[in-house]
Amino acid sequence: MSQSNLKINLSTLGCAKNEADSENMLGLLQAAGYRVTASPQSADICIVNTCTFISGSTKQSLDRILEMVDEGKKIIVAGCLAQRYQEELFKEIPEVNALIGTSDIERIGEAVHWVNNNPSAQKSFLNASKGGYIASAKTPRLRLSGGVSAYVKISEGCNHRCTFCIIPQLRGDLQSRAMDDIVEEVRQLGEEGVKEVILVSQDSSAYGLDLHRGQWLLAELLRRLDLETEVPWIRLMYWYPAEVTRATLEVIAGSKRILPYIDIPLQHSHPELLRSMKRPINSKATLDMIREILPQAAIRTTFIVGYPGETEEHFAHLMDFVAEQRFERVGVFTYSSEEGTVAADLPNPVPEKTKKSRRRKLMELQAGISLTKNRALVGTTEQVLLVREIEDNLIGRTWRDAPEIDGQVILADLSAEKRQSLLGEFVSVAVTGADEYDLQAHCIA
After folding, report:
1. What does the pLDDT look like over 149-191, one tens digit per residue?
2. Half-sphere exposure of 206 (CA within 13 A, CB side)
């Protein structure tokens, strides 16, 4: 089939960093003359950009690949699963035609061309060295998230070696993107009408450590984005607790563009568990500093329950910590033993039933905290970015809410014409109701 008639579908699993890679793959394919379709059924070749961070994400990725097999499609598997299990994938799913590694995104056109001309063969397009891919501001991009929000990758890889995490084996050590290039991409996105840029990486707080004499450059990056771009909301994801600096927090405190939204995965509270995880144990001091400089900050964190050796005492410490800190947003994961990690070989595994029970208890505790915080907003006025329409409702987010992972604001009782005119805009709303995760409101401006 000719290149101009070939239709390509790409599905993305996993994190926002994968979405950024997918948008670049689609942009590269479109620039090369391929047709992009949102429908797997109508596609000639299906690309699955995969995740394998934990066993659940691995299963989800495999399920998506098998769906494409059932559709009888030519299949390219990209991303972390391809990097981690390249030999096993070809052997276990012989219908897979090609693999693209985490550092080989720019070879996607080569892979599609090869698959189109060799439909019954298999080929791996993986670099021998492991590492992630960082696009530049000049790399073609087809945004999946529409006109409201856009993810911008500021670095790739991670220098930390948390005992439960497989990512450094798949994405390599920290590679920071040039600051001028980040600023240029965000500037371009602002000119295109993007209302929110979300800065992502595996470890955003370490940005620049590899570029300039071992110095963290995140504060300088945020300062430049604040002064040199016009995007109304800039949100930073993935802080490492030991790398939060006063300088960075003070830049945010002095900015109306950089949101005081702190996404800082703590993983646990008990020092014994944190040492075993090879995680920082001084999170209380870090949280105190954040609240001193940014008293209005919305702090989001994640925890792992059921890590090997976690006792009832350890879990009770975590429950008390969450009750004391009263975070705005919390995610809880049950520990997943991943082959190739240090933690996979630790003694004293926690039974699955206990893991699930602990997760439920911690989520119930946080749900009560979230409900109280949300109810305190009833009667207030909030600025909301309206991001999508569901049935007869407009759905928006406050600055406290990142896409996909946090709560939302629901606006009902608007005419179809009004909904269409407001979609993608900032509006002022009066908050009229609240539950554990979402707010109800009506538009006042």
Report:
1. 999 999 999 999 999 998 888 888 999 999 999 999 999 999 9
2. 19
What are the tokens at 131?
Answer: 């590492």
Q: Which pair of tokens denotes residue 23?
A: 């948008």
List 74's β-bridge partners, or say none: 45
Q: Tokens 């061309």 map to which residue?
A: 113
**CA nearest to 388, candidates 175, 146, 185, 207:** 146
Q: Is 81 within 8 Å of 58 (Cβ atoms)?
A: yes
Task: Please tell me whether residue 226 adopts helix, strand or coil conformation.
Answer: helix
Q: What is the DSSP string of 99-154?
A: EE-TT-GGGHHHHHHHHHH-TT--EEE--SS-------TTS----SSTTTEEEEE-
| DSSP single-letter state for residue 243 | G
H-run or E-run covering 396: strand 393-397
| Cβ-based neighbours of 165, under 8 Å, separated by 6 or more | 53, 158, 338, 341
Q: Per-residue b/e over 14-48, b at no fewer than 16 CB within 10 Å?
A: bbbbbbbbbbbbbbbbeeeebeeeeebeebbbbbb
Compute the distance between CA of residue 259 and CA of residue 249 in angstroms, rounded to an integer: 11
> Per-residue pLDDT tens for 97-126?
999 988 888 999 999 999 999 988 888 888
Which of the four pLDDT bands, split at 50, 70 and 90, describes residue 213?
A: confident
Strands (E), 268-391: 298-305, 329-334, 381-390
Q: Give buried/exposed letters for 324-333 (b at 16+ CB in 10 A, else e).
A: ebebbbbebb
282 sits in which H/E element = none
